[in-house]
Write a structure and sequence with these properties.
mainly alpha; 2 strands; about 65% helix; globular
Amino acid sequence: MMEDHLEGAKKGRPSNIVFEPVPLGKLHNGTVYNKSDYFSQALEVLLAVGLVGTSLIILMACDHTSNVMTFGALIALQSALMTQLVMQFHDGLHFAIFRRARLNTALSRVIGSYCLWPTTFLRESHLQHHRRAGLVEDDPEVLHFSPEFIERNRWAGLLNRLAQTSWAPLLFTPLLQAVHFARYFRQTVLVKRNPAALRAYIVEVSMMFASWAVISHFLKTPIASFLAGHFVPSLIAMSLVYWAAKPLHTQMMGGPLPELDSTSRTLSIARSFESNRLVRLFFANLGFHIEHHLQPSVSRWNLPRLAASLRPQLEKFANEQQLPFAYHRSYRRWYQHIGSKLPTHNAIRTLDEWKIQNPSNV
């Protein structure tokens, strides 16, 4: 049973495979999966320039079109571009684009200055998600809160109610991050007065103001066009990412997991979606989430190869250790059969409970 494995893992029971964090781009067998060669790094820079440049062209076009159909097509294209920027920004947070950490931070800050995303806060928040995923009270990206947590944090109850509505994809993530940002800023800057954090905020806010001052000067974009051509597509992009990200940890284990080995813990709290090639391309392989949590420094473009090499070992390990192994071929089927009957938080504690909530044919 799952309880036996949890106890065994805490007592140090040896595992057949354990993929602990390793140096950037390398696995235990020496295979390099990370896109860290110079040609790939150059392509990432060109991709960022192309995405931001095309986005600016669309922003100008939105200000000069009066045709409703054309305007709608521009907003749809802008939303797709913003989604790709989210995915590239995410790789930068994990230092998965360049060999040098400073270059990853620099690219993330450039993208963040255009999209109005605070890089330092989001990196710390997202890395905490990787450290604490599955622990409802400590995961800053959790999409469902326990009754105990809600008793101590009224805002969590409001977000829980929002999560049950059709507005959740559009509003849940921005509101959740706003709450966490306010708490994080208060702790790091106002209470602890961390000089490094303060410098980072000054740099990133200055970059945001400077970039949009230049954009506004040359494009002369009125506020209405900015809201329609940038802010709204950003919300749409975040709602699309919410749709793809919600199944990745929902209805997985929510028990006492911190002392498990890396592989066991990841299999307990994450699921992967192979899906079709178009969906994989649009979400930059975000669906290979078990693999991403095992090796977060691997580039998004190499996750399919990593998944193909690890899946047989992981499936065997999960069966031997009586752990969940959640590997799906379709987001649509997950939403039909599992996502449609969600509770407000992960209450699963045993493998039998997990199997009830996660039919094997989905």
